[in-house]
């Protein structure tokens, strides 16, 4: 049986995983994982203890990465929703500019004297 380069296959699968994240399309990543699985199983017939341990550890690592990205997306969506709500609650700039302000009434000292009071 031909030996396989498990390290190379794992690296390739991780690269494919991160490429898939960027593209938001996991088709190639899933295919890469399936190829890895098929190659390992077909060349060895069954996984030995060392390869099995490596595979489990690697799988757990990828699982944690997926969970982290999902949690980040959820938190980002929550923050986006809150920011939109906060923004919607702010008064519009136009409303503040066009809202008439109350001007103080002029004092008597600034008024012109009435014609009748100047004849006294």
UniProtKB/TrEMBL annotation:
This is A17 homeodomain transcription factor 1. The keyword Lyase does not apply. The keyword Hydrolase does not apply. GO terms for molecular function: DNA binding. It comes from the Eukaryota. Residues 100-120 have a biased composition (Low complexity). Residues 93-120 are annotated as: Disordered. Residues 10-83 form the Mating-type protein A-alpha/beta 1 N-terminal domain. Keywords: DNA-binding, Homeobox.
